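Lecture 7 notes: from sequence to structure.
We start with the chain below.
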Amino acid sequence: MFRTLYRTWFEFAGWLFCLSWWLFWLQGQICWWQPLVLWVSFMVLFFLTKQLGYDPGALPFVAILVLTGWVFLTRLNPTWATQQFWGALVACAAYVGGLWGCRRRFAHPLVWAGAALALLLATALFGQSAGGARAWITLFGLRFQPVELARIFLVFYLAQYFTEGRAWWELVLILGAFFLLLAWQRDLGPALLVFFVFWWMSLYWKFTWPKLFVYIACTVLGFISAYLWFPHLRSRAMAWLWPWDYLDSKGYQVLQGLFALRSGGLVGQGLGAGFAHVIPNVHTDYLFAVIGEEFGLLGTFSLLVVYLALAFWAVRLLHVVEEKRVQMIGLGLTLLLHVQVFLVVGGILRLVPFTGMTLPLVSFGSTSLVSQFAMLGMVAGLGGKRGGD
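Predicted structure tokens for the same chain:
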């Protein structure tokens, strides 16, 4: 099995070399050493994970996603690609930290819940606004999104809530405070993500039809309330439902993303041949649409297959874990990443309202990249050490 994985690494290196050469031909120069350093870093992580006795099977998929993102960010703006490169190196360290720290006892669930709420409160009080939401904090010259860490802490709490049978009113108070703080920040995308993750974890732990209907009703009521109280979300909902009525304003981004996907056809226009510059916030919100325009349906389908393979790796790993608390933590972390993929891709395709979140491991955003690498490291570690191969 591992011989096949080693061969895959070198085949992927050949694909990456071809894309880098094509970018050089298009743009005259690129920082060719950046993908080389990233490729070597992922190889080191692969061998380190294997040497420590854990399953490194996620890393080839992660490498494909991150380096695909680097290629398209370089094609759009080399400065974005350079910033993403440094973020990816920090993320590699976060992966190792998650791998080594995951076997600690996640005791004191209220401490994790309190830490999540404290991060959101600090953001609401001292944060900076961008894109209509107060979601950023600058500390010692570093600008980051505390909600990325807060939602991981909340998963730690939720896993222990379900497995320890804690009081229901405690859960209501903590989730209520979490969502109210996100509403205060006007950062409703992460709120929707966390609610769906809670949905899934709760129904996985104990499925009942009344519980499902209550969650559906809460979702509908929450959407209606947010539509009435938050102009930012109302604008996105109107752009989702009636984009043609707002072609020159709030519906412009939605329609340009659909036009890009439509023009890509089956095999795409070719790297660098699309009109990515006409899509607002393309490097954060709509990079999936650019990939669809230039790599076509085959490119976007292949990207989604990689995400599916990553999910399969996590489920297979956690399926054999006997400790329910550990299994629930791993499930929650896996859902944080893959439900976000659904919300982002579904928003671009107009299946759901667009949330403004980044496409995991691909879109521009160092904070999200670091948190997602840490989660993957934790999942690998929570899966336990493997026997000899």
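Points to note: The longest strand covers residues 133-139. The chain is about 70% helix and 5% strand.
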